[in-house]
Amino acid sequence: MLHDAVLVAGKDLRIEARSRVALWQVVPFAILVLVLLAFAIGPDQASLRHAAPGIFWVALLFSTVLAIQRSVAVESGEGTRDGLRLSGIDPAGIFLGKAAAIGLQLLALQLILWAGVTFLFDVRVHVIWLAVVACLLATVGLACAGVLYGALSAGLRVRDTLLPLLVLPVLAPVLLAGSKVWQAALDNNVSSGTQWLKILIPFAVVYLVVGIVLYGPLQEAA
Amino acid sequence: MSASMSTSGAVRTPWRPRWLAVVGIGAVVTTALTVWLGLWVTPPDEVQGNLARLLYIHPAVATVALYWAGGVALLGSLLYLWPRTRSFFWDRLAASAVEVGAVFSALTLVTGSLWGRPVWGVWWTWDARLTSTALLLLLELGYLALRRVPADAHIRAKRCAVAAILIAIDVPIVHFSVDWWNTLHQSGTILDPGFNLHVHGSMLWTMLLSFVAFTLIFVWLLAMRYRIEVLQDAVGDQELEVSLSERWNEDAELVGVGGGSGAPGEDDGGGS
Predict the structure, then answer these.
(1) Does B86 touch chain A (CB under 8 A)?
(2) How many angstroms separate the CA atoms of A46 and A183, rounded?
(3) How far apart are CA A53 and CA A177, in angstroms?
């Protein structure tokens, strides 16, 4: 299963490296969300600093939807999904591989967003390990839930409009917990931050396990 | 359980058990009793006055939305996905439960909001319960949008079953996160919906009766929605068959006019 996962992740990442859609579309979109939300809040530095964790996570969530759509689009070519099914690769391996590919792209995106909020909003993360752990846990949860919902909407003509409606309410706990951990990391409040990690941990674990179990039936239904 | 078509092509009246009429009558009677007791017999609350009468609607509606509808949707979806129990009955039941559940979730929000306006001074507040119910409604709307996407019946059923299970998994996480989000930074007691009344006497009995009334309404609506699902599928099949037979007849006529052998008509005869 892990070998299959590495193969699928490698395939997806190679496609991304060659097409550079993530680099030229998803990254600029994430930065655009940062700038637009800053416009909405206003130029007051204190307000922006206060809102920075929320802006970071909203930008990440919206960009995650784009990354999921891209991951589904890669498999939407003529007979591509059938080819993947016929290859004999374990569905759990496909799930893990696709989640790993999205996860790695999201991690890179978070580094860029982190630099963005530091530069644009002048925020300084005091408890770096807390923010990093939140990002890592959220990445697992976002990638796993994203691949599952991507598979759910795969093959549908209306998937581009349906996917955000399906996935964004599901990802709401990540937005809440991630923003709170980041706020705690900015305020040097470790105890509050670790408490919020208790939401991110089950979210990541549950969607990882459920994805391994349910990806097979979902693939049949795609 | 499924609808079937007669040889003439008309849809037979599907599944309508006698107990459904009993449930319907029971729902009307208990609702009427709840209204009578809630508006005329029970006294106004010492603190909240007549506002406390929403106690006879809101908790019962919320219970139906979250537990009854959610439970049936999850059970139906799991039983559809389980190969031994796979049947469209479970798929239709789950879909009906989500749709009825969405109506009850919306009603929960509306009744909560009606109560909140005079008590809190605002129609909406980011109270944990309100927020998690709003997210539940959005999740249900997502499921219903997925349900309406045209697809092969088996594929649609499998897709929707997985979606319902994912929603069921997400609901407790949403609930806890929203609860923490609110209570960690605001005083929960100020924004508590305030249904921690010391309920007793006629108020208690009326409240219990409201649970029975809304549960019966839920069962009746669920059964009727299930029946509509069956009819919709039957009508869809019938429309296809009628269209196909019309098309085949057209072909047969053309072949007849052209002086053909009529072979296509023979081939197609079995399907009309």
Answers:
(1) no
(2) 14
(3) 10
- pLDDT at site A29: 93
Taking the C-alpha atoms of residue B240 and residue B258, their distance in angstroms, rounded to an integer, is 27
Query: H/E element holding A149?
Result: helix A128-153
**The pair of three-digit structure tokens given for residue B258, joined into one six-digit string:** 């052209």
Of B185, B91, B192, which is closest to residue B143 (Cα–Cα)? B91
CA quadruple B235, B241, B247, B252: dihedral, nearest 10: -150
DSSP 3-state of A90: coil
CB atoms within 10 A of CB B259: 7
Closest Cβ–Cβ partner in A158, A199, A221 for B177? A199
Question: What is the pLDDT confidence band of residue B51, given thresholds at 50, 70 and 90?
Answer: confident
Query: Token pair for residue B192?
Result: 């508590």
* B41 band by pLDDT with thresholds 50, 70 and 90: confident
CB-nearest to B159 from A173, A177, A221 is A221
Residues in CB range of B82: below 8 A, 6 or more apart: none
Are B102 and B137 in contact by the 8 Å Cβ rule? The answer is: yes
Q: Do B151 and A149 touch (CB under 8 A)?
A: no
CA distance A48 to A183: 13
Q: Which two tokens stand for residue B56?
A: 């006879």
Interface of B with A in 131-170 (CB under 8 A): 135, 138-139, 141-142, 145-146, 149, 151, 154-155, 158-159, 162-163, 165-167, 169-170
- ∠ at Cα B128 (B197, A181), nearest 5°? 145
CB atoms within 10 A of CB A118: 13
Choose among A7, A171, A156: nearest CA to A96.
Answer: A7
- The answer on pLDDT for B59 being more than 80 is yes
Instruction: Give the pLDDT confidence of A35-47 residue by residue, as tens digits.
Output: 999 999 988 999 9
User: For residue A35, how many other CB atoms are within 10 A of its CB?
Assistant: 13
Residues belonging to chain A with any Cβ–Cβ distance to chain B shorter than 8 Å: 145, 148-149, 152-153, 156-158, 162, 165-166, 169-170, 172-173, 176-177, 180, 192, 195-196, 199, 202-203, 206-207, 210, 214, 217-218, 220-222
Q: How many Å apart are CA A82 and CA A77, to the nearest integer?
A: 10
B266 — pLDDT class (breaks 50, 70, 90): very low
- If you compute the radius of gyration of chain B from its CA atoms, what whole number of angstroms results? 25
Residues 6+ apart with CB under 8 A from A5: A92, A93, A94, A95, A96, A97, A100
Collapsing DSSP to helix, strand or coil, B11 comes out as: strand
Asked if B166's CB is within 8 angstroms of A210's CB, the reply is yes
Say if CB B128 and CB B178 are below 8 A apart: yes
Residues 6+ apart with CB under 8 A from A133: A181, A197
